[in-house]
Amino acid sequence: MVPVGHGALDDGDYVDFNLQISLTEPLGTETILFTEIAGVDIQAKMLNPRPVESGEILSFKLSLDKFHVFYSKSGVAIRG
Fold first, then answer.
1. Which of 33, 24, 30, 27 is nearest to 1 (CA)?
2. Helix (H, G, I), strand (E, B) or coil at 2
3. Going residue by residue through the chain (80 aa), what tens digit of pLDDT does each one get?
4. What residue segments make up the domains of the chain, in order of their start?
5. What is the reported pTM?
């Protein structure tokens, strides 16, 4: 998942989201953004970051070819 304007997008199919940021972790040339979708904690990497406030709503694109889903109890990847 990539914040719009802050990461490389390949050709492919994407789903657009607007998500509220709960926490940020600035790491110099990138920032890790913490948010949630349907009560599930999600992390996204923001390249070429700018300051982001907790509670701010950002637009994201999720590649349908590159996202990973795991069973919460076992940690095993769910394959499509």
1. 33
2. strand
3. 677 877 666 777 888 889 999 999 999 999 999 999 889 898 999 998 999 999 999 999 888 777 777 888 898 888 65
4. 2-64
5. 0.73
CB atoms within 10 A of CB 45: 15
**According to CATH, what is the number of the domain 2-64?**
2.40.50.140
Per the CB < 8 A criterion, the answer to whether 56 and 44 are in contact is no
Distance (Å, whole) CA 22 – CA 12: 28
With 0-12 / 13-18 / 19 or more C-beta atoms within 10 angstroms meaning exposed / middle / buried, residue 42 is: middle
